[in-house]
Amino acid sequence: MKPASAFSLGLRAVLPILVGVAPFGVIYGVVALQSGIPALAAMAMSSIVFAGSAQFLLAQLVGAGAPFLLTAGAVGLVNLRHALYSASVAPILARLPRRWKVLLAYLLTDEAYAAAIPHLMAARPDSPESANAHWILFGSGFGLWAGWQLATLAGVLIGAQLPSDLGLDFALPLTFIAIVVPMIASRALLAAALAAAAVAVVLAALPYKIGLFIAALAGLVVGAAMPGKSK
What is d(CA 19, CA 119) in angstroms, rounded to the nearest whole number? Predict the structure, then answer.
């Protein structure tokens, strides 16, 4: 498969996912402004961080005035799952030069991975198709990146026209629920989600949203302790 064809394949694979991702980008742009984040900083986060769930959490923590170390730790914890994605594609991309690995690591998100992985797994490391398999991931990652930037820009423009005291905090939990619920495919994941939700509710009164950080840790511990059997 030629690079252009592989890139086009990855781009086409991610386009249906963009239909669901775009509203989250718009909501993030609005919520970021509502949290007191300047428009340029909100756009910069989408370009640099490029991780929807982490950006929502960061916006909430900034709005709550959380300390920098707590904010950085919480965002890093949320993004740990990307290490699993990286490990699964590493055998296919191991031969690439460092510049490609850095670029693909930046573009490796939940949706880009989900769109590209079926095609990447079909291109075994010893097959001729694997020579340009990285272009598939690049296509899906670039398509998602471009769509996310446009959605964020739309949200920032909309948010600038809304009253500053409108209050859109409800969008954050709704967004996380929409992201997490479809991913619960085993008893371990269900237990982790329920544990995290329970701890978050119990510790909701803690300052700087630190209860969310503790809830995430609780979910990880419970999930790791449970056997990963399907429901």
Answer: 21
Q: What is the spatial distance between Cα 134 and Cα 123, in angstroms, rounded to a whole number? A: 10
The gap from C-alpha 171 to its chain's centroid, in whole angstroms, comes to 16
Q: How far apart, in whole angstroms, are the C-alpha atoms of residue 158 and residue 152?
A: 10
Looking at the predicted structure, is the pLDDT value of residue 130 above 70? Answer: no
Highest mean pLDDT among 139-148, 198-207, 218-227: 139-148
Query: What is the pLDDT, as a whole number, of residue 172?
Result: 57
What does pTM read for this prediction?
Answer: 0.73
Around 200, how many Cα atoms within 13 Å sit in the side-chain half-sphere?
A: 15
pLDDT tens-digit readout, 60-107 = 788 778 788 878 887 887 787 788 788 888 888 888 999 999 999 999
Domain ranges of the chain: 1-169, 184-231
Distance CA 128, CA 142 (A): 24
Would you say the C-alpha torsion 177, 181, 183, 184 has a positive or negative sign?
Answer: positive
In the chain, the largest separation of any two C-alpha atoms, in whole Å, equals: 58
Length of the chain: 231
